[in-house]
Every structure is written in C-alpha cells, then in structure tokens.
Amino acid sequence: MASLHPHNGTTNTDSKPKPKPEPITESEIRSEFSHHDPTIARINNGSFGCCPATIIAAQNRHQLLFLRQPDHFYFNTLKPSILRTRRLIQTLINADHLDEVSIVDNATTAAAIVLQNITWSFFTSIFNPGDAALILHYAYGAVKKSVQAYITRAGGHVIEVHLPFPVRSSSDIVFEFQKALHMGKANGRKIRLAVIDHITSMPCVIIPVKELVRMCRDEGVDRIFIDGAHAIGNIDIDVKDIGADFYTSNLHKWLFCPPSAAFLYCKMSDELSNLHHPVVSHEYGNGLAMESAWIGTRDYSAQLVLPEVMEFVERFDGGIEGIMKRNHEKVVEMAEMLVEAWVTELGAPPEMCASLAMVGLPVCLGIKSDGDALRLRKHLRECFKVEVPIYYRAPVEGEVGSIITGYARISHQVYNVVEDYYRFRDAVNKLVKDGFTCALLTK
Amino acid sequence: MDSEDPRSNGDGINHVSKKPKLSSFITESEIREEFSHHSPDVARINNGSFGSCPASIIAAQKGWQLRFLRQPDDFFFNNLQSQILHSRTLIKDLINADHVDEVSIVDNATTAAAIVLQHVGWAFAEGRFHKGDAVVMLHCAFQAVKKSIEAYVTRAGGHVITVHLPFPVSSNEEIVAEFRKGLASAKANGKKVRLAIIDHITSMPCVVIPARELVKICREEGVERVFVDAAHAIGSVHVDVKEIGADFYVSNLHKWFFCPPSVAFLYCRKTPISPDLHHPVVSHEYGNGLAIESAWIGTRDYSSQLVIPQVLEFINRFEGGIEGIRKRNHDAVVEMAQMLAKAWGTNLGSPPEMCPSMAMIGLPSKLGVFCDDDALKLRTHLRDRFGVEVPIHYQVPRDGEIGSTDGDGCVTGYARISYQVYNTLDDYIRLRNAITQLLHDGVTCQMLQRE
C-alpha cells in the first residue's frame, strides 16, 4: 500500500514535513475510546467499526459549520473537502487517477452502483438473458440481495462459488474458484461480472484476490468487482496490483471514520461514464465522483474527516501499517490462546487472518443452526457482556467425527485489551462446565 | 397534543387543559439561544434550501449518535428498528396516512424521487410500460428531480412532457387552467401518461400549488399514478395525504420541521395494486417492503431519523404548535415581502394566499437579472458583500408576454425570502438596504464578477 510517509516521495499537501508527534500512550488510547461501553468486552470491530473521540469532535466541527451557514458551506466548503478525502484515498490505495475515486456511504451503496450498471446492460441488450454473475457463496448478505435485485431480476444467472471452510491455505481457495469458474462457463455461458470479497465477512478469511482476478481475466470475465468492505486499515490495498475494475472498502470499519463513509474505486475505462449513483441529483452526468459528492441535502461530515484520521493514525508507532501489524499479531495470539483453552481449532491459518480470526467453539455447545449462532451471540452479550459474532458452519456431506459447527469471529483493534479475550475464554469455559447447549436457548 | 394535566385526580381521564399556558411557551430569548449556532453575521432568509435545526434537537441527535457508538451491536439489534418505527408512526399521524406501512423514512426528497422513478425505469425494462409512454412534470420541477427523470425515464425510452405554469401568478385558477391544458395536449398526442410529478410547493419560483385539484385532474384524465414532490411542505403548509389523494407524497423534515440533515418521509398509498417500490441501495431487508428496506441500507448514521419525538416536543413549546408556527411564519413573510415590494417599487410574484413561509418578491429591473448566471452572481454578491443569504430566481419571460414591470422595465429577477422562527425584522431590513445600496451605486449583474 502506498504510504503517506514523506520520505517515500509521495505527494504531501504540506510544504514543510510535520515533526513526528509523540507516540500515543495507552492512557490516551483509553481516553479516545472512553465513549465505548466500559462493561462490554468489545471484540466485534468487524461489524460496525469504531471511531475515536478526536474524530467524533472533528466530525462535530464539520457538522456545525454546515448548520451555522449551510449555503456558504454548500457553495464554498463541501466540494473541496470531499476532494481532499478523495486525494487521500487515491494515495492510500495507489489509484492512477483521482476520477477513479468516489466517496459513498458504504460498501452496500457501492454494490448498488456497480450492479445497477449491469441491469442497464441487460436492459439495453448489451448483455443477454442467461449471462452470468459470479459471486462467492460467502458473499455478504446485502450484496447477495443486491445481486438478486439487479441481476437476477434483469434476467441474469447467478453462480455461487463454494469455498471451503475451515480452510488450510490460499491454494484451497484458488483451486475451488478455478473449478467453479470452469463450470460456470460450461455450455458457453458468458460471465459478465465476478464479485469477489477481499476479506469475507462470515466466515472471515483473506481471499487471494490478485490470483482470482487474474484467473477471471484469463477466462474472459467482463468485469470484476472486489468487495473489500473490511480491507482498508486491515490489510494492504493496491488497486493497480489487484487489477480489478471496481473496488470498494468501508472507512468506518478499520480506518476510524465515523459512520459512515466508503470509497468506490472504478478503473478508468470507457464504461466509467455509464456508472451512476442511484440517487440522482444536480450532478448527474458529471462523473460518478461528482454525482456521489452531492446526492441531495444530507450530512456529509463523515466523509470529511479523513485528514484528521490520518493525523490520528500517525500518532501510533508505524502509522496505519504499525496498527495493522499489531492488530494482526494480537488477534492471532488471542485466537491461539482461545483454541488452546477450548481445545478447538482456528478456521484459517494466521496468514489468512487480518485483524480478525475465526476461533472454533467447543462442539458440546451444540450450535446446530444460524438461529443457534444468533441466540448464542445474544446470550454472550446479555449474560457475559461479551460482544462477538458467532458463525454457524453447517456440516458438509461425508464429514465424519466430531465437527466444529460454531466459530467466533474475534477482532482486535487499538482499544482492545487482553482482558476482553480472557472474559470470552472464561464465559465459554463456564458454559461448557455448566453443560450449556444452544438448545436450552430455544426453550 | 393532549398532555396529562398534573392537577387531575388521577381518574385516568385525559383532562385537556383549556387555559392557554402562556408562561410555558418558548420565549424570544430561548428561541435566540436555540439558534445561537447560526452565524450571527448573516441575515439568514433562505430557510427553504437547507432548513434549520434548533440546539435542543442537535443535542438530542448527538445523544443518539453516541448511543450507537457506545455499543453499536446492541443498538442495531435492540433499538434502531423500534425507534424508526416510532418515528414512522408519529409521521403517519402528522400526515393523516391510514397505515404505518405507507410511511417510509428516507434521506431526502431526492432519494424518494429516485425510488419512484427507478420503479418507472423497471416498468419500461420489464415491458409493463412501452417505449414512448409518458411522464408529466412541471417546467419548474426541482433540478435534481428533472435529472432523475432523465436518468430513469428518458434513458429507459419514456417520453417526458413538461407543463409550464405561469409566473408571476395571481390565482389557483391560472395554475389549474394551465395544467389542464398541458395534460390535454399530452393525451392529444396519444401518449399514455404513466406518472405525473407535481410539486406541492414549487422551489423556484416558489408558489403553493393547488395539489389536490391537480391530482383530481390527473385522475380524471387517466394518469396512471401521481407523485407529489412536497419537499417544502411539512411544517409550512397543511399536509393531509388522504385529502391530496396522490399515490406517492414526499416531504423533507429538515427544511421546515426542525430535523437535522437529513430526513424525509415518502408516503406510498396502499391499494390492492400498489406497485412494488424498492430502495435503490439494496441490503438485507430487500423484499420486506419499502419502509423496512429503507430502515436499513447498510451501516450509517440514522440519528436524524430518530429525533422526531424530540422535535414534536420542541414544536409544542410554541403557541399553537406547528399550526401556530406556520401561520405566524406565513403572516410574517407576507408582511416582510410587502415591505420590500413597496421599498423597491415592485410586486410579489404570487398573492399572499399562494405563499407558504416563503415569498417571491420582484427585484428592481435596473439590477439587470437577465439569466440564471446573473441570479447566482447577485446571490453570491449579497452573501459576500452584504452578509445576506437569499436565493435569487431568474424568470424567463414567456413568448409574447411582458410579465411584470416596474417603473424602469421588465422585472425578471425575484428574491425568494423565507421566514422561520429565528428570523427578525432586521434580516429583511438588511436585504432591503442592500438592494437599495446596489441601485444607488448603479450596480447591475453584468458588472458582478463570476466566482
């Protein structure tokens, strides 16, 4: 990932390099996140992210600027502020052109933009009924619905690629994907779009997107969209290196922005002018980035605080790279501590984990459905004050023996402490000791 | 709104207080404080564009934002949906809708337009509408809505018919007559009119449209569906969606209803053949009805949608509640408009009964507003040089018409002034004096620099 450090020769908007700030202390970090519920062991940064107090304050300043004199803000301030954010993203993700970077609410919105464009292609007969879109079976639920709403409804065929979980290595993923791609193309079917997660949500695994993109290109897939919702601030992103046509990631998950803001990268092409934000306003036809920067009166403040966020991350040793590295090491360490305590397994090897890890839960807990997983999550929240999402992994035909059917997706972000994970460890140990099963929760 | 009288005997009967509780109404000083975050240097007479939000509501919103940030999972699973439902229920009562299912909360009228028009786009794509089928809109429809029509109707092969309404205008009858004419000529060309989009209060120039009558005409003329864009309506005119009788009705709550940016409701009348509308940002709730879909469109800040209970409390601190606020705003803006028209030797663009909490006042012809660019330059100049925030409208003279004149020529520029609870007489005096000063200095729009 391109770095913001001046010594890399990257363009810096300041003329003088700023003196490196004092590294943030543990006590300052606690202060930054003192608005978090102190009674909760918060190990689900993946779902909704987090936002430090400094950034909330910055956001409030932007909000008040608008409320103070909205016309002035609209005519003179808003556009340049969004432009600043786009430039920062361009650098962070190594995009060639600024026009390639649009700011939207979230990855869900980005998906709607990309997919609605596909609908038009079907409608105008550029694509034909039966042409296919390829998605992962583990694609995020909202994205699957969007594919249904925009592709299935328009006459497209949807291919779901089943990937193994637990998974032992990236090559397992590559192998399965290759198989599915070939099968998808059987009978001369044209694959118009591939939607590939960079980090799947549930179960959470880093996908070798660069290889998969290359495979898709080799097999003549028209367009490739990477859903990197979790990626930025979690792993390196180099959109040129990955080579996809579209790439989205949420800034509020792992990059400390308030809810909510995301970028949608669209590689420069003739098609780019056909992409539109579905909420059409004055800027329609002026390019997706311009369209997205004004979709009617609303609060754009979450999109404006990225400069302050970059200052915030620079207070940490190694900046965002340092944060990512330490989060990853910590979450792996905690995950291994948990599997040792519970005598279970990780769902994926450490190199396929970012700042999240899938930790097998003891089989005796009897997680036998999605409903069980959700109820167990609620039980952990209410009775043990642990916030952690639970994944139900259905047994696959032909599997023998005692199979782990439940995994916890733990996360590590700068505000976490080791006690959060001890509390989770002890909660599960207690449940096991008490002979708890999920069946008890449905009574 | 009835409130439990604490002096009651606890007999469970709701005693409606008959005495006006004068001492408990909000004071001038409290109002000033509620809007103390507004720039004190600006005569803020453009409430129409971006609305306004009192400090109490900003604080309430912050409370909701922090609740989410504190424990987002708990908020998502246990609070958000019930709070949005509560907001929807309050809105349903405000607008006299039959079912809460008919009320969806979205970001703004622009989003609502996208929802309705995307549906039209699908109808063309799926063969329910045929190439050349028409959508009718007003010539002065909001620019964003026009673009949305281009994006979803024209692009899909639909035909767009524009109805010109007169301005300046002197009565509802003029509007009705023009609309009837416009609709008739659409039908004369054999076009099937699938949708009519009618403003309840046009934005520029700003006029209250007799929406109920126009909806009736649409029904008589066989227009399939009617969408009323009432972006400005709630909090500035009486809103009764059943009375108006449209299929779709949208209004922004952040313009005249004191909500923070941004929140709007989209009302969709329930009938046996209600069309299947979807939010364009598709998420987990796809297929569960527009209201439920709109209540979750991915992780974002929904706090502006949750403060409606607090807003109703705020409004009821004013005598007469929202009706009282509306009436006083209207009376004040008309009074200010007449003061300005008199000072400048011009006229109002519409009679008082067709003004909501905004009024269009002719600008002296000597200022030379001859195009949209001139209007924008003048607006910028008023902001930068005089600290007056007011939108300026350029009225294209219609073929063969002279339109309005003052002593010196054709009046082609209008200022759209607004009046909201935070405004004072001084705001309008500043505008009056600014224009007088420009005239005195012989300034015309041509002389003003482009930004």
Description:
- The complex is a heterodimer of chains A (443) and B (451).
- Chain A is α/β, with parallel strands linked by helices and 443 residues long.
- Chain A folds into 2 domains: 76-309, Type I PLP-dependent aspartate aminotransferase-like (Major domain) (Aspartate Aminotransferase, domain 2, 3-Layer(aba) Sandwich), CATH 3.40.640; 319-440, Aspartate Aminotransferase, domain 1 (Alpha-Beta Complex).
- Chain A has 15 helices and 12 strands.
- Chain A has helices at 26-32, 45-48, 53-68, 70-93, 107-123, 141-152, 170-185, 209-218, 239-242, 251-254, 288-292, 306-314, 319-342, 370-384, 418-433, and strands at residues 41-42, 101-104, 132-136, 157-161, 191-197, 223-227, 246-250, 262-266, 356-360, 386-387, 390-392, 406-411.
- In chain A, the strands form 3 sheets. A 7-stranded mixed beta sheet of chain A has the order 2-8-7-6-5-3-4, sandwiched between helices. In chain A, strands 9-12-11 form a 3-stranded antiparallel beta sheet.
- In chain A, helix 3 packs antiparallel against helix 4, helix 5 packs parallel to helix 6 (141-152) and helix 13 (319-342) runs parallel beside helix 15 (418-433).
- Chain A is globular, with a radius of gyration of 22 Å.
- The relative contact order of chain A is 0.14.
- The model of chain A is unreliable at 1-12 (pLDDT under 50).
- Chain B has 451 residues and is α/β, with parallel strands linked by helices.
- Chain B has helices spanning 28-34, 47-50, 55-70, 72-78, 80-95, 109-125, 143-154, 172-188, 211-220, 241-244, 253-256, 290-294, 308-315, 321-344, 372-386, 425-440; strands at residues 43-44, 103-106, 134-138, 159-163, 193-199, 225-229, 248-252, 264-268, 358-362, 388-389, 392-394, 405-406, 409-410, 413-418.
- In chain B, the strands form 4 sheets. Chain B has a 7-stranded mixed beta sheet, with helices on both faces. Chain B has a 3-stranded antiparallel beta sheet with strand order 9-14-11.
- In chain B, helix 10 (241-244) links the parallel strand 6 (225-229) and strand 7.
- Chain B is globular, with a radius of gyration of 23 Å.
- Classes of the chains: A alpha/beta (443), B alpha/beta (451).
